[in-house]
Amino acid sequence: MENSFYKDSIVLLEGAISDITSKLDIIRKYKISKNDRDPIEYITTRVKSEESMKEKLKRKNLDVTLQNALTKIFDAAGIRIICAYIDDVYIVAEMLKKYKDLKVVKEKDYIKNPKPNGYRSYHIVFELSLDLAGEINNVYVEIQIRTIAMDFWSNLEHQMKYKKNIKNPEFIASELKRCADEIATTDLNMQTIRKMINTEE
Ligand code: 0O2
Is 170 a residue of the active site? Predict the structure, then answer.
């Protein structure tokens, strides 16, 4: 069915998401076949809503056009990969980057370089070519890879953006920053404990 904003391009966005989720499925099966830990807890996908895309185009001072949404904004198609441990985040990122048909166009490591508000996540934008009825189309997909704890934090922090009239914004922001730092320490401690339990790692 045609989408009112993305029109027929919705097929390309959803196609690109399925291409990468199927690669992720193969990565998980490969790891399990090698008796390694499954590095992924779960995956969510979405095509950015029309409202959110229009808001982002305006925020970036771009004309609100489908062409700009598909070529200037890289997260019309998005995949979020949630891992238990920080080292899994890097394992998944490296394995995805090995696919020759996925071209990295942007990469940001907000785990090594957290944002000032405490946001942590590993972002990669891939460009892939999809053959649709004999025509080759380039599609961007933004992948966000993070731990369960980072995801927990960013979902709560994200709510701040959309809530109007918050009473203590500075206090909430500083509490969120404190939690982000505590989460980062806990993530590292959990990984260390896991390695101590599985001494062969
Ligand atoms: P929404 O509503 O989640 O979709 P840039 O590199 O700055 O030109 P962009 O795309 O803003 O372009 O890059 P970035 O920094 O990689 O951010 C992309 C997405 O990451 C955001 O999309 C958010 O989903 C998420 N993100 C980035 N920073 C934060 C943050 O501080 N807190 C939370 N909760 N999420 C963040 P959107 O479209 O901005 O937002």
Answer: no
Residue 91 domain flag: yes
| DSSP β-bridge partners for residue 138 | 129
What single letter denotes the amino acid at residue 57?
Answer: L
Chain segment 154-194, per-residue pLDDT in tens: 999 999 877 878 889 999 999 999 999 999 999 999 999 99
**Number of domains making up the chain:** 1
Tell me the pTM.
0.95
Question: Could you tell me the distance, in angstroms and rounded to a whole number, from the CA of residue 109 to the centre of ligand 1?
Answer: 13
Kindly state whether residue 160 falls inside one of the protein's structural domains. no
- Confirm whether 48 is domain-assigned: yes
Each residue of 27-49: pLDDT tens digit? Answer: 999 999 999 999 999 999 999 99
How many angstroms does the Cα of residue 159 sit away from the middle of ligand 1? 13
- Domain residues for the domain of 13 are 4-152
- Which CATH number covers residue 76? 3.30.460.10
Is the residue at 96 inside a domain? yes
Kindly tell me the sign of the dihedral angle through the C-alpha atoms of 140, 126, 46, 155: negative
Nearest CA to ligand 1 atom 21: 75
141 contacts 78 by C-beta, under 8 angstroms: yes
Ligand 1 contacts (CB < 6 A) are 52, 56, 75, 108, 115, 117, 119, 123, 154, 157-158
